[in-house]
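hey so i finally got around to running the thing on that chain from the lab meeting. sorry it took forever, my laptop kept dying and i had to restart like 3 times. anyway pasting the input first so we r on the same page abt which one it is
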Amino acid sequence: MKIAIGALVCAFAFAAPTVQAQVAPAAAATTTNGTLRAGTSVPLKMSEVLSTKGKKLKVGQRFQLETAENVTVDGNVVIPAGSPAVGEITEVRNKGMWGKSGRINARVLYVRANGRQIRMTGSLDDKGTTGTAGVVGAVALLPIAGFFMTGTSAEIPLGAPVNAFIDEDISVAVVPASAPMVVAPTAPVPVSAGVPVKH
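ok and heres what got predicted. didnt touch it at all, straight out
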């Protein structure tokens, strides 16, 4: 009895199906439109000091802020932390005689990000401490003394937190997360037909 050994070994080599991992190509990233909604909160911080000391602040004067954190849409950063923002003084009252304290009122106007200027809303203020109690005591003792009693200046320090909000819907381009790689087995290789045995 003769057996074609080479052919039989070849058949056994293909008998065990092999599974090879194939990595499906990731879906190409596509850009879609998202929306940064009006009313979205944007944490800011002061980039300069506002103070009524020196009586230099004026109504209408602009000042600088910056974003304290990233603002995202669908996981994409649309306003990076550190983006410059601008505010405007709306009211100034300097400290004065008879215990009058200083006061600052201001509002946030806009933030600049990725080449765009985005309108914002938000307000900030500070009021110094009045000298009313001292004035009352001084007037009771000597009326002229109350005239020279003053309150304190108002001041909004560098780095002070300011909460503002997006004032308009903004269309932004976002890139969705890529589709996960899919690992799929290949089809098993069929077993080769055996070679007939010769007797």
